[in-house]
Design brief:
This protein is an alpha+beta fold. Helix content is about 40%, strand content about 20%. It is built from six helices and nine strands; from the N terminus they run H-E-E-H-E-E-H-E-E-E-H-E-E-H-H. The protein has a five-stranded antiparallel sheet with strand order 4-3-7-6-5, sandwiched between helices. A two-stranded antiparallel sheet has the order 1-2. The longest helix is centred in the first third of the chain and has 39 residues.
């Protein structure tokens, strides 16, 4: 009877060995009692739980495989979405190696052909920006470790100068050093043309107004003076124009009329005309 019990325990040990290792190996099995445990591949297993081992291991394997497939699908989806987002940008966008100015990643708008440096994406530009007297965003970011915005003048395919606003952002490595630069370019030529035209127009307007023989004022709805082409008599040259209002230089007998006319212009948006006999001294 004791011999039979021993044989059963030994058989159970062999079965556990097969479940734990996939197949029994010579010398792997050992005799154990029902309350002893066996360490197989780092797992502590009891004889009473032998029937659950194979199922748990198969389930774990299946789950790992499913997680791997899901992770791969997620990565592919994110990769596709990332490049779709880059291609949706109408402006040149690229990732630059900070050590040698080479482009590692770029969208179609950058005109990148798969090789070359960051400056080579600009038409007719074959040398680094700094050598052409332009501020280099890569050099500036490596020095400051901070984002930068600079302006460049580069010719387009037709040789016409274009004003380009270059935005650069650092990408750090695990040591905190600038490893790459994110850079995108905005063509601001039209904006600069509008700004230049506006400045020119303002300069002409100011020249005409300041040389006019008559007093010209700009006031707000409340009668506060915003601009005057010359000192008003009441200021005596000691009071800032911006500290004056209509009350300071319009005689009392005309003040109500003037304020009414001013409010009317603001309300209707139409010009008006009136006359007064004098100003305060």
């Amino acid at each position: 009877m004791r011999s039979s019990a021993f044989a059963i325990r030994q058989a159970a040990a062999v079965v556990l060995g097969k479940l734990g290792n996939g197949a029994s190996k010579k010398g792997d099995s050992k005799t154990m009692s029902s309350d002893e445990t066996m360490n197989s591949n780092g797992l502590e297993l009891s004889a009473g739980k032998a029937k659950h081992i194979s199922f748990a291991r198969s389930l774990s394997s299946a789950t790992t495989s499913q997680d791997s497939d899901m992770s791969l699908d997620t990565l592919k989806s994110q990769h596709k979405l990332f490049f779709l987002a880059l291609e949706s940008l109408p402006h040149p966008f690229c990732l630059i190696d900070a050590s040698d100015f080479s482009i590692k990643l770029a969208n179609s708008a950058a005109g990148f052909d798969g090789k070359g440096k960051c400056y080579s994406t600009m038409p007719s530009v074959e040398k680094p920006c700094a050598s052409m007297g332009e501020p280099c965003p890569v050099d500036l970011i490596k020095k400051t470790k901070a984002p930068v915005v600079v302006e460049h003048i580069h010719p387009d395919e037709s040789g016409i100068p274009r004003c380009v606003e270059v935005h650069g952002y650092p990408v750090f490595d695990e040591k905190g050093e600038v490893a790459h630069i994110i850079e995108f370019l905005l063509d601001i030529t039209q904006r600069r043309c509008v700004e230049d035209a506006l400045r020119e127009s303002e300069a002409k307007w100011r020249s005409v107004v300041e040389n006019a023989p008559d007093t010209i004022l700009t006031v707000d709805r409340c009668g506060k003076v915003l601009f005057a082409n010359r000192d008003l008599p009441c200021s005596n040259g000691n009071v800032s124009i911006n500290d004056l209002s209509l009350d300071d230089f319009i005689p009392a007998e005309h003040l109500q009329l003037v304020k009414q006319k001013v409010r009317g212009v603001f309300d209707t948006g139409e010009a008006d005309r009136f006359e007064i006999s004098s100003l305060k001294d």
